[in-house]
Amino acid sequence: MKVVVAIPAYNEEQTISTVVEEIKKALGKRSFEIIVIDDGSTDRTTEAAGKAGAVVYSHPGNYGLAEAFKTAMARALEHKADVIVHTDADGQYAAEDIPKLLQKLSEGNDLVLGSRFSGKIQHMPLINRIGNRAFSGVISGIARQRITDSQTGLRAFTSNVAKLPIISNYTYTQEQILRAARAKYRIAEVPVTFRKRTHGKSRLLRNPFDYAIKAWITIFKIYRDYEPLKFFGVFGGIILLIGLLLGFLATYSFITTGLVGGIPRVVLSGVFITMGIQIILFGFLADMLKTK
Fold first, then answer.
1. What is the CATH number of the domain that holds 98?
2. pLDDT digits (tens, 9 = 90+) for 92-120
3. Residues 211 and 245 in one domain
4. pTM for the complete prediction?
C-alpha cells in the first residue's frame, strides 16, 4: 500500500521542514511519499520543503485552501497513491497520529477523520470551537452519521475518495465528508492531538468569519443537491405557513369584525401560499430528477 501525504502550504517556511521530518519519522518503513502544494508563497517555503525531502508543486498565486486541495488530490493520484493523508503545514497536527488513521483505514473504512474534539486540544479560540461544533452538527445531520470534527485538516482516505469532485472554491473539509457519505463510503474518526501554533497565525484560513459564511454557502448548495425535497420543503413550508397564518388572521378578523383587515393582507396571504406550494412542488420535481 503506497501512502502519499499531501500538505498545502502558504508562507510556512518556519514550520514546513519540521512537519515533513516528523511525518517521515512517524511513517518509518512504510512505502510513502510527501508532496507539498505551495499555494503561492512569498517566502522560502518551497526551498525548505524540498530540502526536507518533499516533492513540491507550486501555484503561481495564492488560490486558497480548496484549490490547493484539488491540486494535491490530482498530484497524489499521479503518484499512484493507494491512500492519501492530508495534513496542515503549520505543525498543529501531530504526525505521530497518522499511523492511527492508517490503521483505521486498513480496517475497511474509506475516509478517516482525525477528531480534535475527541482527542486533545492544546489551544483553539472560542469562536473557532463554537463554529466547528456548529458545522459538525449540521454535517452530521446531512450525512446521517455523527461527526465530531468536520473541519479537521488531518484525514486519511482511499484513492476512490480522492476522486470525488469538490465544487467549493474556498474549502474542502465539509464537502468531502458529504460526498463520501452520499457515495456510501465508510467514514470513521480517531482522536488526535491539536497542538498550539508556535509560529504566526493561520495563513490558509485568515478570516474565520469570511470562511464561515462561504462554508455555510457551500453546505447549503450541497444540501440542495443531495436532499432537494427536504431543502425546498423546509423553505416552501415556512413560506406556506406564513401565508396560512396571514389568511387565518384575515378570516378571524372577518368573523369577529366583519372586516378582513385590508386587501393587502389578503393578497399577501395568497401570494405566500402560492409561493410556498410552488417551492414544495419544485422540491418534489428536483427529487424525482435526482433519483433518475
1. 3.90.550.10
2. 999 999 999 999 999 999 999 999 999 99
3. no
4. 0.76
